[in-house]
Amino acid sequence: MTMKTFHNTVNGQPVASPSSFESMNPATGEALGLVPQSTPEQVAAAVAAARAAQGPWAARPDAERKALVMKAAEAIAANADYLADWVTREQGKPLGGVGPGQVPGARFELWGCQAWTQVAASLDLPTEVAFEDETRRDEIQRKPYGVIGAIAPWNWPLLIAIWQMMPSIRAGNTVVIKPSEYTSIGTLELVRVIAEVLPPGVINTISGSGAVGSQLVENPGVDKIMFTGSGSTGARITAAAAKNLTPTTMELGGNDAAIVLPDADPKAIAMDLFWGAFLNMGQTCAAAKRLYVPESLHDALVAELKAIAEAMPMGNGLDAGIAMGPIQNRMQFDKVSRLVDEARAGGATIVCGGKPQGGPGYFYPLTLVTDIADGASLVDEEQFGPVLPVIRYRDLEDAIANANRLDVGLGASVWSPDPAKARAVAERLQAGTVWINQHGMVHPMVPFGGSKRSGWGVEFGIEGLKAVTHPRVISMKK
Q1: Domains in the chain, please, with CATH?
Q2: Which of 34, 48, 142, 450 could make a disulfide contact with 432, Cβ separation 3.0–4.6 Å?
Q3: What is the C-alpha to C-alpha distance for residues 391 and 368, in angstroms, rounded to an integer?
Q4: Does the pLDDT at position 319 exceed 70?
Q5: Cα of 352 vs its chain's centroid, Å
């Protein structure tokens, strides 16, 4: 049987490449389809198409752009089942469902794609009056940058692409997006669906290895770069963008600390804490990745988390009743395995999990690790997988200091039934977002971004829309 070759979308047309590579199912190891390896000429052509489309797109009345972005949301909804199937087959997360009590998987990702698109379509950036007196009036307008170059990751391959694309086009920019080489087909198909309701050239794709991303970043026709991914890749992209003085938004890795206060109820918080850490198999930038628990609650909370972890069915996400899928790729699987092995060798206790499953696919069981301290590689490195180190503390001051010790600060959380106590701790944590009695709960109206080496710039809401525009002042003498 001949494997299907998928295409990029450039200027509203399907584009094939001279060479291609296979996209693989991380649950089964099977090849799913062929992805085009974009050539340097094709990258340049995609940027040129976006550049040609940008002026007319920005010149459209704002109401027209909003209406077309809302049409894109309708197109996503109409194709949600098809696209969710691709997310599960290519990324690994289970299909799951949408709504209370449902496993948050691929269908949840597609619901998020629709919701974030609708919010982008609904927002306004009106002209503001910065200053006015009897002699002058100064107004601030928000103008699109031009062409946005976006590089999307493999963990939420469609949702994060939407986060990058939809506010950008809503504001009058055009986009060239490169999906991760691990999860290209779903994103290429998402853009194909969206592009059918938009003018040609407003959204374009390129695909391939990291070299293709480099060509996009280095193209002088790109006016802003948006990247979500690792800090090491972010550093390379920032250096390349600097050569053309291209501004960037960087959403980089995190190693989020969750601090449980001594008055918390382990039973009451365990399920929310579990999903805060293990959503998408822990492959989420803002997942809880270090859990600080007072000695008095440690054993009770670990027992609650262990019971939940061991009850979660793991397997091929297309199968009914599956709550947890595989790690997405071999590189990440090997990193998770190494960190757990190092923790075990260092004397840590593996409460559950800790050994890769046999058979096909990158399956690693949900793993809780105790008797571990700051300085261990599993605590200090972002594991980005289904493993949670639980660190005992006696003194809350030590827990706060250790939570802030690392050079990253994407998210953090505090858990307590006392809002005032929780807030007092939250105010001291160095992170772009600090959640109280929840973790990783992003919202399309609430700005999201990192501090320290977790990046700069924000996405979502009015602040996210401002981030894909630049201010222009009109200053009038009276």
Answers
A1: 8-252+454-477 (3.40.605.10), 256-443 (3.40.309.10)
A2: 450
A3: 11
A4: yes
A5: 28
CB burial of 158-183 (b: ≥16 within 10 Å; e: otherwise) equals: bbbbbbbbbbbbbbbbbbbbbbbbbb
Tell me which H or E stretch contains 86. helix 80-91
pLDDT tens for 215-245 read 999 999 999 999 999 999 999 999 999 999 9
Name the CA radius of gyration of the chain, rounded: 23
Spatial separation of the C-alpha atoms in residues 448 and 442, rounded to whole Å = 7
Which tokens is 106 given? Answer: 């691929």
Phi, then psi, of 358 in degrees rounded to 5: -80, 180
* Confidence band for 357, pLDDT divided at 50, 70 and 90: confident
CB 243 within 8 A of CB 215: no
pLDDT at residue 310 tops 80: yes
In this prediction the pTM is: 0.97
| Residue 312 buriedness (CB in 10 A; 0-12 / 13-18 / 19+) | middle
Directed axis angle between helix 266-278 and helix 295-311, to 10°? Answer: 60
For helices 184-195 and 159-170, the axis angle rounded to 10 degrees is 30
Residues 6+ apart with CB under 8 A from 387: 282, 336, 339, 340, 353, 364, 367, 368, 369, 378
The pLDDT of residue 270 is above 90: yes
Neighbouring CB atoms inside 10 A of 406's CB total: 21
Instruction: Report CA-CA distances (Å) from 185 to 179, 223, 424.
Output: 9, 26, 45
Q: Which of 110, 150, 108, 432 is nearest to 275 (CA)?
A: 108
Any idea which residue has 């199937």 for tokens?
Answer: 85
Marked catalytic residue, from 90, 109, 189, 251: 251
Query: To the nearest whole number, what is the mean pLDDT of the chain?
Result: 97
pLDDT of residue 359: 81
Do residues 94 and 103 make contact, with C-beta atoms less than 8 angstroms apart?
yes
- The Cα 397–Cα 408 span in angstroms is 19
Angle at 295 between CA 289 and CA 296, to 5 degrees: 120
Give the pair of three-digit tokens for residue 10.
């450039």
In this structure, what is the dihedral angle of CA atoms 394, 400, 403, 407, given to the nearest 10 degrees? -140
Residue 95: alpha-carbon gap to chain centroid: 18
Q: Is there a catalytic annotation at residue 381?
A: no
Residue written as tokens 């950036």?
A: 125
Sequence-distant (≥ 6) Cβ neighbours of residue 275 within 8 angstroms: 104, 440
**Whether residue 1 has pLDDT greater than 70:** no
pLDDT tens readout for residues 79-107: 999 999 999 999 999 999 888 888 899 99
